[in-house]
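Quick start: read one record
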Amino acid sequence: MKEQSSVILPRPTALSTRAGLWWGLIGILAFSFTVPFTRVAVGGLSPLFIGAGRAVVAAALAAAALALTRQHPPTRAQWLRLAVVAGGVVAGFPLLTSFALTSAPAGHSAVVIGLLPAATAVAVVLRTRERPSRSFWVFAALGAVAAVTFAALQNGGLGSLGWPDLLLFGAVVAAAVGYAEGGLLSRELGSWQTISWALVLAAPLMIALTAASVVAEPPSATPVQWLAFAYLGVVSMFLGFFAWYRGLAIGPMAQVSQVQLAQPVITILWAWMLLHEPIGWPTALGGLAVVACAALAVRMRLRAAPASALPAASAASTPTTSTEES
């Protein structure tokens, strides 16, 4: 019986890993429109209104969802961790990218955002006991290099770093920390519950910033720009995290995070289709290289966890299943 048990244990892990990757892909597809639609929205709306207002829209949806499903409030320790998530993905990334995209084109922004998978993997390793293999890091690094190279070629090179680049670098760090902590919390609270509580926590600050932006620069946008803003609030800021945090919760997080390597490819595709930014063979070939590196990275197995860490990992994964199935 003992040998039979050891034989069947790895199978659910393999299924969970594939499920985590698929959920991660759905989330990344939703996020891939964020940069182009932000670029559209800043044509008629202030960056402060976009960065804060989209969080207000999402917070209203989150509060309604939490109330209708009668979710139990997080513990005091979980609220502190939710503050990290809110600072990274509710406030940090949206505000920094909105200001950066007032002058940086969507394709150029993908240069820096292409570094997000590697940054997330580092944040995961620092925050958890997950230790990717050496091959994983090799392909993750190659994917990051490929993402930067093809996006830089599309825009004629990075050139000197200006304030938009610095803002985008800050956005990458903020999102990486928020992704890592949110993935861990999703194992305890559930995927959509995690982003919902983070949105509610940040709502007072985001409402104040939105009000200040309206007073300083009243919104004046076309219907298309308002539709782009609506997508940012409903999908990029809310629904997309349902899938993304679900994928990170299933894990392994360091591997699932590498699915983001496909995001700059898809983002530049949307920039070409929606914003008519030029795209050539170097970009197409670079995009294929990025996807290939991502596919190789996510296939690399994590090193076996120490025996002492197994009970903690099992305990962390149990609430996720029960929460999602309920």
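The chain has one domain: 32-304.
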